[in-house]
Amino acid sequence: MSKVYFAKFNINSEIYDVYSGKKELKSLLNKIYVGLNEDIELSESTGTFKFTSLNKENNLVVNGRLVFYGPGTHTSYDPEKGDIEEYLDEHKARYIVFSFDIENEIVGFVPQFGFGHNQFLKRFGALVEGCADIGEVQLYLESDIESFEERIKHLKRVSEINVELIPPNNDREDFKALFGSEAEELEETGATKFFFKLTASSKKKIKTTSAYVKRLIKGVGLGYGKMTVYGENTSHDKVTIKSMDDTPYLRPIADSEKTSIPEVAEKTRAGINDLQRLKTNLRVRETEQSNKPTK
Fold first, then answer.
1. CB of 59 within 8 A of CB of 265?
2. ∠ Cα 117 155 244 (to 5°)
3. pTM of structure
4. Given CB 3.0 to 4.6 Å as the disulfide criterion, which of 3, 73, 76, 211 pairs with 250?
């Protein structure tokens, strides 16, 4: 059984123009839909990558493959010689099937051996930037935020939290909700990526139920960043929990279906529905807690 991974797609360098009304998010997303093509090829030191087999649905969904090719070696067994044979292929290819729901800003994909999720995120973002004139974009793996929070709860002590966050895609109000009293000053900097590091002294611990930490976790759960938590379990063993690596949001797909574009598209649709429900629950929960009267 293989797994479908999900990534939150974010407009990044143009986000403050969206906040100010100079540009519309919907217009930028439409630009991506129209711009994605199979002609753009980009290169790395080890090879070239591009989109292939693109299929654009009417509801701003684009399905296809992201192919990476370059010099490589094939190995096979020759029964007549009783030995292996190797031969060089200048265009040895690996690919990942994906389904990009542009309106919901989520892409589902199935990593392959030799073509992992980190490589996909980097290459997918670069191709989108190359195909559509929308500036820089940012993708984060969607986290199973309930599982992430549960793992944090089981820590005896949290000594350090590292967070990377970007401005939300929606509007300035979401930005204020995420960054709280610091939002206005952060926006004034013009920066589009923020890093936070919280540390406790050797005899203290970070209160993960505090409003500040819970707000950061919410940002990660909504797909606007990633978090790494360092702490100790009840046996005093050191533990590291990474939102993207340790608790990614996944959905199963049969090995026989992982290279099928229609099957990956269908699994992605179902996964997005469930993921959106989890995000809605997260927003409601945080709103209810913030509205509770303080004692």
1. no
2. 10
3. 0.92
4. 3
